[in-house]
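#help-structures
NK: newbie question, is this the right format to request a structure? protein is DUF2280 domain-containing protein
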Amino acid sequence: MAALKEPVKMFIVQSLACFETPQQVADAVMQRFGIEIDRRQCENYDPTKFAGRNLSKKLKDLFEQSRNDFRKNIEDIAIANKAFRLRELQNMYEDSGKNKRAKQNLLKQAFQETDGRVTKQEITGKDGGPIQQETKNPPQYTPEQLAGMTAQELSRLAINGKL
């Protein structure tokens, strides 16, 4: 296992905080720094994993800050921007040649993007009123417990209605 310098460690931590896989991070380290590391070594820098349980406080704090920034700044992700998506759809439409089915699907998708039917949907309950919901008392998690969970664990809790 290669001994890594601080900038490489910080790069690994920030990449993992942005939900990149250990293999993606290992490949990026090779490309950016010319250092070959194993994906298992990358896991040592993820405090949400068992292998990263002994990560230094400085790197844990960097991970948490990077993850919070990543989650808050979706406008930095091109595909989250409607104008970017429409431009890509336009390019695909132009590249589809005479494929009518592809063009039809792209037109439909572009319409949904501009009409807002994909992202906005209002559902009402009886007689147009609010939907009545019965909630069972889900277990309450502290922010520290939630921060220590992986994205997969959080998704599972959300899907099962426990968040």
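mod (FA): yep, format's fine, and the tokens are attached above. The radius of gyration is 22 Å.
NK: thank you!
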